[in-house]
Sequence to fold (656 residues):
Amino acid sequence: MSTKIEIRIPWERYGAIAYIADNVEMFGKTALQKMVYFLQEWKGVSLGYRFEFYTYGPFSAALMGDLDYADVLGAVKVQYIVNGGYSISPGPQNEDVRKHAQDFLDKHKAEIDAVINVFGRRSATSLELFATTHYAYSYFAARGKPVADSDVIDTVHALKPGKFSRNEITEALEYLRTNQVITA
Amino acid sequence: MVYCKRVFGEERLEPWEDTGLNPDKYYEIRDPIHGFITITDWERDIINHEYFQRLRRIRQLAFTDMVYPGAAHTRFEHSLGVMHLAGKAFDLITRNQKYVNRLKNVLHYNDLGIERARWIVRLAALLHDVGHGPFSHAAESLMPIAAQKSKAGTSDAQARYSHEQYSAAVIRIFFSDVIDGNRSLKTNAEITSDDVAGILDGDPQMGSHLFWRDLLTSQMDVDRMDYLLRDSYHCGVQYGRFDIDRLLHTLAVVEDTELEEGTAGVARSKSGLGLRLGVEEGGWHAAEELILARYAMFTQVYFHKTRRAYDYHLEQVLGTLLPYGFPPPDSRRNLSKFLKWDDWRVAGIVAGNKHSDDARRIRERNHYRRIYETVETPKQEDIEVFNRISDKLGSLVRMADSAAKSWYKFKKEEEIVVEMEDGSNKPLSDICPVVKGLRSIDQQRLYVDNADKEEALGIVAKVTERKETHVD
Fold:
């Protein structure tokens, strides 16, 4: 046999997590999920995650596992704050892990920065609303017909009747349009 | 006729109003894990469908019987078990008035809506694996890259279709006759194949029903509850056992007290804004056991070094048979082609193929041998050593494996929420140091031909400067 067989370490995934941790202050697991969701679904930067839909919005189980492993590698530090959720911050090997993914990060820096600019300062609840609204919008857009705002608003509202008001969902749609996350 | 909500495993029958969904007859099937599994007459019609019967010809654990000879069970019995547990879990949750009130107040369910959800959940559980390829997960490497979004808008960028997506498509296209066409289901509850598939693939139009998705696919779902117990039983090991009765009896519908994370700091948001499946404080040890069972089964069965070698040989055989992979699950024609593939067809080819080295290895049980592996959770320096060994071994390496490539994984997932007796919610890892200490497994392995083992061992020893290395 002449072909070398080797394991491919997904450094681009760990690198992206490390980069976000280095450039976003005070964020948690929900925020990471939604930012990587937008990186793939809005900016088209594929990290190979499949986001499935739950009542709390699009979620990738693989990303949760990668965050834990990024912690093992020292790319990030994930800390549980008693009664306060999780906090993700740069780990001691953050720069080193980003170096492993340098090509990927150089190529996609603009896209990752755009996601951070639009969503990096938003709360977890807001990000859940934005991602859920985007997911619902994409669901209808995939049918190849013009998307009616009312369909998106009804769908998001039905998922969590008590959490997001129709006004909040309408504002989320507007925010996504203003930032050209959705274009129609 | 008065419909009786059965709490399976107990002698109690709870009368409900007659909603027209009451089955004409119940049937019982013996199961080695759960005892009698009770099904309705119209569930039996679905079980008798040719594509559900196909699951009798799909082994649960592929060639795991090369290691654990008893592991020859199929997706058929597992699917019945998952339906049984889904119904049991649903009944136990909804006999608690506190949880029923939450379902009504937060998700706007009424009694009929809850009953309707019960049947959708049972059917989704029953049919969740109808999209498996031959030898279960071994075939998933042949599922194509999904270039477009699925019906539910699932993000698939560079990710392969999963068997769950095949299952959802098979349900929508082939089970509509027995679901949509069932008089009781259609006329009285308007349950359709779209409803059942929608729970599985997370169709956003399912609205509040998606709450029940936690019961079918989450850290604490009935799918893994069944397969851990069933796989343990058939393998003859005890690793996958946990206190399922305690866990089921302490499942909870918890209010979503999601935590705010953002630049403004970390603060609690309002509670009662959504619901999640969780566990009562009295059940967290059972939830802990479930996670530990999954850890032990992963290391001892699913990621067993020899079992993984046969996964590889099987993938190679399948890759030769289907150089372009399976067709995508986007049409009746493609799904019909896909569903023609089962274990019998592949095994027949393996038995008769005189040209494939991998088929021969399966027939003769002469698999590649693991020659080196990292620790379960390697750090950067461990990966560097692994890469050096791989470089030195060069063309002797026949197979490289990674826990991350395995279809069964042990990775940190969404936290299990524990509802404390004081009404607060805590993540399980906050109150359970054992769970907190578990890390995602990303072990890496190298395999060589048995004939090259001694030479390879010498090379590994030189690199590691150790006299003893990991060997078969």
Summary: Chain B touches chain A through 74 residues (CB under 8 Å). Residues 139 and 318 of chain B are 7 Å apart (CA to CA). Chain B has two domains: 4-357, 368-472. The two ends of chain B are 63 Å apart (CA to CA).
